[in-house]
Recover the amino acids of this structure.
């Protein structure tokens, strides 16, 4: 059963939060480079409160702070946050690739920050079941003004923030360019050269890929092109078949785990087929950092790239491609249909960042004051920098003045803004882009990619996934098991099929106690379904 667009999804497409700082919306911070930190020092809450307010906050360390900017713990923005908010903020960085593992260690050793955040709601749910975080309803009611007002204006967020009837996190909404996540690209010039139409079905896509492999589309006289590359190829297969293996679906009103459905067997069969036919890079399963896929795409040796809809990262890769292959014509590829219908690629749910309160937090009032300041005004400069120094205001859209300066001085600051009251329109991409021909072309491609990414609805039958101890424990074991089974099916020959893999997964699920989890999931759905409408 497929749930059509509802209030919780439609609101996410109109009011949300930007995923990348280069795509942030309007800002009206009027501080200048000379007075941006001194003007509020004498009037800050710290100056009038005899008890200094302090709070510690986690932060993803993405390696984005240059040595002359400082560190994630100590840089121009951390100083600015302290001075402008009047709160002594301590930043606790965790490596992005191991963020949850690192946070778990900090929690177990009683060294976790006061405010713990993640993009992943299920991780917050795990912290709830572990007793690591605390309900915050009373704190918001007692201490908050700005966030309380924001939540009243966006009540559709409340179900996402609620666990076991209590609110355990705060969040703001994503903007459209952050709801859209995955995307696909194809070489239009290769299609034209080989006399091929844009594929619209999975069979047509496979036919195009085969032609890209055999038809010498780059014209060098050698069959050395790779049809399909990218970091999200398996997610692409899963999305078009409407079956992400770690997601629950509603099948005839009953909760069903994605990895157990017949559709998932088809997903694994497709992955095996494209591998055996040589339609994907043979090293893609071990290309963990996606560097080989990027190289094949940007050097003009790949025809279909499955990764993101656009944005700064994709625009950079497209720019590299055009520098290497000036005549290339990359265009967004719309998801293709299968025997199950037509569905969009992966899209995020409405909430942006989930911010939870450590159960051992010393000063909840300071934490709420900090979040109020952030959603009210702090996020603007952290996303855009300072007007006149990092951006100019063009009809309410922040246009970067010097991209290199922005990347170095502001690019790493966006995730300090854990709450944001932001807006975005697809046409903002063209306004934000530099005026030169290449930048405008790349921005136009991004806009096209964004609009195409949102054209088809990603199948998500329930707005968020259930979270309880038994399921969390099984999922922890199932994820590596599924990955191992996938690898065996894909690479180990005809003995191992998608149907065989599906039966192995079902047996492992049953062995781990999955049947009881299905009962619990159905009970959870019945208890919560009223809030999904």
């Amino acid at each position: 059963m497929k749930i059509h667009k509802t209030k919780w999804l439609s609101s996410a497409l109109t009011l949300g939060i930007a995923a990348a700082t280069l795509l942030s919306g309007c800002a009206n911070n009027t501080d200048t480079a000379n007075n941006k930190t001194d003007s509020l020092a004498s009037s800050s809450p710290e100056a009038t409160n005899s008890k200094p307010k302090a709070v510690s906050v986690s932060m993803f360390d993405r390696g984005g702070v240059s040595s002359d900017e400082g560190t994630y713990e100590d840089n121009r923005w951390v100083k600015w946050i302290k001075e402008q908010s009047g709160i002594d903020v301590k930043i606790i960085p965790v490596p992005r690739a191991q963020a949850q593992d690192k946070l778990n260690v900090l929690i177990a050793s009683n060294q976790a920050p006061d405010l713990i955040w993640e993009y992943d709601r299920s991780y917050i749910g795990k912290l709830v079941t572990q007793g690591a975080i605390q309900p915050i309803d009373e704190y918001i009611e007692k201490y908050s003004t700005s966030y309380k007002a924001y939540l009243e204006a966006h009540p559709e967020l409340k179900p996402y923030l609620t666990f076991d009837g209590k609110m355990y996190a705060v969040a703001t909404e994503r903007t459209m360019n952050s709801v859209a996540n995955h995307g696909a690209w194809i070489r239009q010039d290769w299609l034209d050269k080989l006399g091929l139409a844009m594929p619209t079905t999975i069979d047509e896509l496979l036919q195009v890929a085969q032609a890209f492999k055999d038809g010498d589309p780059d014209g060098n006289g050698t069959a050395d092109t790779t049809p399909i590359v990218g970091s999200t190829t398996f997610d692409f297969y899963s999305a078009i078949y409407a079956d992400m293996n770690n997601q629950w679906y509603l099948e005839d009103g009953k909760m069903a785990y994605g990895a157990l459905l017949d559709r998932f067997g088809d997903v694994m069969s497709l992955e095996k087929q494209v591998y055996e036919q040589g339609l994907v890079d043979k090293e893609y399963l071990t290309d963990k950092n996606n560097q080989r896929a990027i190289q094949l795409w940007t050097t003009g040796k790949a025809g279909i790239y499955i990764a993101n809809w656009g944005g700064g990262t994709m625009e950079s890769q497209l720019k590299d491609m055009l520098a290497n292959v000036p005549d290339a014509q990359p265009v967004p590829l719309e998801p293709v249909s299968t025997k199950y219908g037509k569905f969009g690629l992966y899209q995020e749910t409405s909430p942006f960042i989930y911010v939870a309160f450590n159960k051992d937090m010393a000063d909840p009032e300071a934490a709420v004051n900090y979040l109020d300041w952030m959603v009210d005004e702090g996020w603007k400069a952290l996303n855009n920098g300072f007007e006149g120094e990092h951006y100019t205001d063009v009809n309410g859209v922040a246009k970067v003045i010097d991209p290199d300066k922005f990347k170095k001085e502001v690019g790493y600051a966006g995730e300090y803004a854990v709450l944001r009251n932001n807006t975005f329109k697809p046409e903002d991409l063209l306004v934000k882009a530099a005026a030169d021909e290449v930048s405008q072309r790349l921005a136009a491609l991004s806009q096209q990619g964004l609009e195409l990414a949102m054209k088809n609805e990603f199948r998500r039958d329930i707005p968020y996934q259930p979270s309880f101890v038994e399921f969390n424990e099984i999922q922890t074991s199932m994820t590596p098991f599924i990955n191992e089974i996938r690898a065996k099916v894909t690479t180990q020959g005809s003995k191992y099929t998608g149907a065989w893999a599906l039966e192995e997964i079902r047996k492992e699920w049953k062995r781990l106690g999955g049947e009881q989890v299905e009962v619990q999931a159905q009970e959870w759905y019945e208890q919560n379904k009223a809030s999904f409408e």
